[in-house]
Amino acid sequence: MEPIRKHEGLVYPLNRSNVDTDQIIPKQFLKRIERQGFGQFLFYNWRFHHDGSQKEDFSLNQPKYDGTSILVAGENFGCGSSREHAPWALEDYGFKVILAPSFADIFFNNCIKNGILAVTLPEEEISQLIQKAENETYHLTADLKNQVIYDNEGFKTSFEVNDYQKEMLINGWDDISVTLTHENKIKQYESKKVGV
Amino acid sequence: MTQPKTIVEKIWDQHVVHLEKGKPDLLYIDLHLIHEVTSPQAFEGLRMNDRSVRRPERTYATMDHNVPTRERHIIKDAVSKKQMETLKQNCDEFGIPLADIDHPDQGIVHVIGPELGLTQPGKTIVCGDSHTSTHGAFGALAFGIGTSEVEHVLATQTLWQAPPKTLNVKVNGELGTGVTAKDLILAVIGKYGVRFGTGYVIEYTGDAIRSLTMEQRMTVCNMSIEAGARAGLISPDETTVEYLRGKRHVPEGQAFDEARDEWLALASDEGAVYDHTLEIDASEIEPQVTWGTNPGMCLPVSASVPDPAEATTDNKRAEIEHALNYMDLQPNQPISDIAIEHVFIGSCTNSRISDLQKAAEIVRGKTVHSSVTAIVVPGSQSVKQQAEAEGLDVVFKQAGFEWRDAGCSMCLAMNDDVIPPGERCASTSNRNFEGRQGTDARTHLVSPEMAAAAAITGHFTDVRQFTNALQH
Ligand code: SF4
């Protein structure tokens, strides 16, 4: 997993609440057995017509958002299915940071496991950021080490992150190797509680 | 006296392997259920890092999301076929028991776990599927995980988890006649929204919950995730014990009696403290129908579709407009006027034997409306077998329903069971998201009884009037 300490990028605003993982990546794309290559299917039903041509009116298709890497969305982002294909698709498309007033639990966890920084910000700040990114070419910087998000026009806000998740993200750690350092404890537990 | 505890605290305490300040707890996982869609990349990860499956005997796999529900062996989609073959290869390679497509135990993962007695009170249960909350009906702590976590559990039989907050959803009173467990949970989500459970484990308590059967409890716990909660559970009682007696993986004889005592002791103590409590009166609940594109957009069948003009905020208005547009509904249109083209009875929410029995009672001796295509997809091959032994297949087929093999089917339409664009379905499943049952398909969530009644009349019909009319 790629470490993430500080990221500066173009903001894409998605002014919708309750965006579910069926919208992020529709089920017809869950059949692949690889981890890569899901970015092309991101928000598929919003981005494409039945015949596969692009829907011009869906904002992510507009050239001004080419190269975006920071997604700002409405509350309860990532609700619904546990499919990790959702963060895979977001990551593969180029998103490194997601900002929203709230996230669904499983989705939030899945982001951390894939090196995506998901940050909860107050609703007013999110609306403000969405508005800016809708009206202009707007860049933000997310500094995980110092737990702040800022632009170069004077906006600056701090955010909360759990220490453990911060450590995992900053180091790009795979948590299986961390867990396996506790092998003795797992063995002890098993011999006591479940029998070996 | 020791501090009274909730069932969640008791299960948690029994499963902590390692505690460290500033970190989540390392929790032991008793049972890991697996299916074909969310596991391939996890096995691939194990291979890449030269890791093995720590406890294959605590792992159980089946195929459900992709499987065809008619002509089982004709898997038209090469990618689906590949995914199913990959699961088989992975289970062979790592020594994991698998109920594959030819196996008599095959079925939806959340139907077969309880059926086989793998699901038991006090267990920690995970699966790469958000409806794992279903198993909470037994007083197990069961929740959905992503594929990286699937890999983590395969390799270590543990998970890092922060202790959850607890939410007591207390359902007082008694459900009226014709009102089901599905209506109960839809009404709760309709009342409190799709986010109230986020960050919590829900414990369902109260008289109305106590009087539910195990299958009804599974329907309730199943939809906890639609309220945002990763897990929902119900303290075990005699109903739980009696359901488990004699199930294949449940201990027998004296061991059963001992297990029984342990199970019952898990129930939340009198005076246990929850982080939050919500109450609802069961007697006020009517049969429900969803009208929008998330399960919280739900109303009694006697109501009318909401009018965006009456929304209290701009955001809400936009949300309602967007949903009505997708669903092709008019503001203030009576829900009972909505005509449907499809009926789907199935999914891990409502595909167990009692669901099929109830639906069959409604359709017995009737005919499916000429403009409706209706299918019944039993939750497991063993539910199917039992239904056939009771002659339910004949009841459904004579009425004009199709009778299929077990699988997820039209709940998420990953196999060939897809609703065509623009068409409308009364579905007993759990999600009415855009495109869930097919691109541009429109889903209305209902109970099996309501789905059966809609199949006959061609539009939503209050099943209570329907049954009354039948008696007269
Ligand atoms: S029936 Fe539907 S909700 Fe249940 S496991 Fe299958 S796809 Fe998921």
Automatic annotation (TrEMBL), chain A:
* Family annotation (Gene3D superfamilies): Aconitase, domain 4
Q: In which pathway does it act?
A: Amino-acid biosynthesis; L-leucine biosynthesis; L-leucine from 3-methyl-2-oxobutanoate: step 2/4
Source domain of life: Bacteria
| Bilayer-crossing regions | none
Q: State whether keyword Isomerase applies.
A: no
Q: Which UniProt keywords apply?
A: Amino-acid biosynthesis, Branched-chain amino acid biosynthesis, Leucine biosynthesis, Lyase
Q: Which residues form the Aconitase A/isopropylmalate dehydratase small subunit swivel domain?
A: 1-123
- Keyword Lyase present in the record's keywords: the answer is yes
Write the Enzyme Commission number(s) for this entry: 4.2.1.33
Q: Which Pfam families match?
A: Aconitase_C
Catalysed reaction(s) here are: (2R,3S)-3-isopropylmalate = (2S)-2-isopropylmalate
Q: Which family does it belong to?
A: Belongs to the LeuD family. LeuD type 1 subfamily.
Q: What does this protein do?
A: Catalyzes the isomerization between 2-isopropylmalate and 3-isopropylmalate, via the formation of 2-isopropylmaleate.
Q: How does it assemble?
A: Heterodimer of LeuC and LeuD.
User: What is the protein name given in its UniProt record?
Assistant: 3-isopropylmalate dehydratase small subunit
**What organism is the protein native to?**
Pontibacillus salipaludis
Automatic annotation (TrEMBL), chain B:
Q: Keywords assigned by UniProt?
A: 4Fe-4S, Amino-acid biosynthesis, Branched-chain amino acid biosynthesis, Iron, Iron-sulfur, Leucine biosynthesis, Lyase, Metal-binding
Pathway terms, separated by semicolons: Amino-acid biosynthesis; L-leucine biosynthesis; L-leucine from 3-methyl-2-oxobutanoate: step 2/4
| Presence of the UniProt keyword DNA damage in the record | no
Give the cofactor note.
Binds 1 [4Fe-4S] cluster per subunit.
* Catalyzed chemical reaction(s): citrate = D-threo-isocitrate; (2R,3S)-3-isopropylmalate = (2S)-2-isopropylmalate
SUPFAM superfamilies, sorted: Aconitase iron-sulfur domain
**E.C. numbers:** 4.2.1.33
Classification via PANTHER family: 3-ISOPROPYLMALATE DEHYDRATASE, HOMOACONITASE, MITOCHONDRIAL-RELATED
User: What's the subunit arrangement here?
Assistant: Heterodimer of LeuC and LeuD.
Q: Which family does it belong to?
A: Belongs to the aconitase/IPM isomerase family. LeuC type 1 subfamily.
What is the name listed in the Swiss-Prot or TrEMBL entry for this protein?
3-isopropylmalate dehydratase large subunit
What gene is this protein a product of? leuC
